[in-house]
């Protein structure tokens, strides 16, 4: 029997439906043949995306009376129409198209988005959605199989949630490979990715409605923020991230982790507290302690490193004790903060850069120094090649990123005779060298993590009042 020959679907004045592509597996809908277009209760309605392909995102409370359960949805905008409600009020509404499932029937329907707060049904099914195969029996309800709201209290709501279009901010002041890749990969997945100059952000700090402003306007609510904070603006950049955290935005890397990783002394204290292998390190303030400082990390050669050093700059190899004392004296004369570190000879000018995303090493490369330099940084002419890392190295990299609470980190390791030693944990690692040398889509893995983190989570059931 063809679809045309099959009997019509019998509907009561109230039925259970699903809108799977919006992440709404169970909705109780009022069937109203007096209304032409279907309507969905939506709040926080906001448009985003390019003018030639505009999208709308909105929040749905699928269970009437349960404002604690919110499902964030997004869809392509089909139209914007003037709609008159049953009580005579007229408003402009965004129109979307999405598949509806009822019983074994699945069909695309048009839905207008509006605030139906106070209505008993958060979904109204109009006659356009019914088509020719559905007939309504006004005095009956639930003629088709009934669903329930229990699905929102289980892990299934997360597993079946669609990869909706997201609005993502990249905090960056540079138009480099990493920033361009973040935009390119995000937009290829259907997301809207906006690059925001960190120092152009300014903040409204108050208890009730904290906001981040930019170029004279309040920034919208982003689904996620990807920080690419340069070392020179760490204090201000982390203040901006803290403001996003206050608002409740998911930040790939948090302000506390970035702050700790940027301060070399603080970073090594975090590593030591978490019993993560690193070269012997010492720090002192008084010139009288120079000899003792050198003695704590062993004999020369040794490394003298500025606390704010980046990309290998401000890192000096002292071949002899006398050379170490001279370097330390020079740094003290500049009133610079520095630490002294054991030099791992067996590393032979090579280190391992592990890219950790979401608690997993997604790519690893070996960086080798050029021209006899002990520093293997790619910015200083180092050479990158793919490398297979050991289980111990993998676990060390993951533990180091976790110690700082970083969802994305570049962890630099040295291969020593006593096992892997962490040199540095970078909260804004570059992607070009790692992706080129390893052939891995690191940015794609980052978006996998973001999409997984912003999906709806199950909410607890409310206990029945006794």
From TrEMBL:
The keyword Cytoplasm does not apply. Keywords: ATP-binding, Ligase, Magnesium, Manganese, Metal-binding, Nucleotide-binding, Protein biosynthesis. Gene3D superfamilies: 3.40.50.20, Acid Proteases, ATP-grasp fold, A domain, ATP-grasp fold, B domain. GO terms for molecular function: ATP binding; metal ion binding; ribosomal S6-glutamic acid ligase activity. InterPro entries: Asp_endopeptidase (IPR008503), ATP-grasp (IPR011761), ATP-grasp_RimK-type (IPR013651), ATP_grasp_subdomain_1 (IPR013815), Peptidase_aspartic_dom_sf (IPR021109), Rimk_N (IPR041107), Rp_bS6_RimK/Lys_biosynth_LsyX (IPR004666). GO terms for cellular component: cytoplasm. GO terms for biological process: SOS response; translation. Its cofactor is Mn(2+); Mg(2+). Residues 268-451 form the ATP-grasp domain. NCBIfam families: PRK10446.1, rimK_fam. In the C-terminal section; belongs to the RimK family. This is Probable alpha-L-glutamate ligase.
């Amino acid at each position: 029997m063809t679809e045309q020959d099959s009997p019509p679907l019998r509907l009561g004045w109230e039925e259970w439906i699903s809108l799977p592509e919006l992440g709404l597996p169970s909705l109780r809908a009022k069937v109203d043949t007096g209304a032409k277009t279907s309507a969905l209760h939506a709040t926080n309605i906001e448009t985003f995306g390019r003018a030639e392909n505009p999208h709308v995102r909105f929040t749905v409370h699928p269970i009437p009376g349960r404002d604690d359960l919110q499902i964030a949805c997004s869809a392509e905008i089909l139209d914007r129409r003037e709609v008159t409600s049953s009580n005579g009020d007229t408003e402009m509404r965004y129109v979307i198209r999405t598949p509806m499932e009822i019983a074994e029937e699945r069909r695309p329907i048009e839905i207008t988005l509006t605030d139906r707060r106070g209505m008993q049904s958060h979904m109204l099914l109009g006659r356009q959605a019914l088509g020719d195969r559905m007939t309504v029996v006004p005095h009956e309800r639930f003629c088709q199989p009934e669903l329930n709201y229990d699905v929102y209290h289980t892990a299934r709501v997360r597993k079946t949630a669609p990869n909706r279009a997201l609005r993502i901010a990249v905090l960056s002041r540079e138009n480099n490979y990493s920033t361009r890749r973040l935009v390119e990969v995000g937009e290829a997945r259907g997301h809207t990715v906006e690059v925001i100059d960190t120092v152009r952000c300014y903040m409204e700090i108050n208890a009730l409605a904290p906001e981040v402003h930019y170029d004279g306007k309040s920034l919208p609510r982003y689904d996620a923020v990807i920080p690419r904070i340069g070392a020179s603006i760490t204090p201000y950049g982390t203040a901006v991230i803290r403001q996003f955290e206050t608002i409740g935005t998911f930040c790939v890397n948090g302000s506390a982790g970035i702050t700790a990783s940027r301060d070399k002394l603080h970073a090594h204290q975090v590593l030591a507290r978490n019993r993560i292998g690193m070269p012997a390190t010492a720090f002192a303030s008084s010139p009288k302690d120079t000899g003792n400082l050198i003695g704590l990390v062993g004999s020369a050669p040794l490394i003298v490193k500025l606390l704010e050093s980046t990309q290998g700059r401000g890192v000096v190899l002292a071949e002899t004790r006398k050379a170490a004392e001279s370097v330390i004296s020079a740094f003290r004369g500049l009133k610079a903060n520095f630490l002294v570190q054991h030099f791992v000879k067996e590393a032979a000018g090579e280190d391992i850069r592990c890219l950790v995303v979401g608690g997993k090493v997604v790519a690893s490369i070996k960086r080798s120094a050029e021209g006899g330099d002990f520093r293997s940084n790619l910015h200083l002419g180092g050479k990158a090649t793919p490398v297979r890392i050991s289980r111990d190295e993998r676990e060390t990299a993951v533990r180091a990123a976790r110690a700082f609470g970083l969802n994305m980190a570049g962890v630099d390791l040295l291969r020593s005779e006593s096992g892997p030693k962490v040199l540095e944990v970078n909260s804004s690692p570059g992607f070009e060298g790692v992706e080129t040398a390893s052939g891995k889509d690191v940015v794609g893995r980052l978006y996998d993590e973001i999409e997984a983190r912003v999906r709806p989570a199950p909410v607890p059931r409310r206990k029945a009042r006794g």
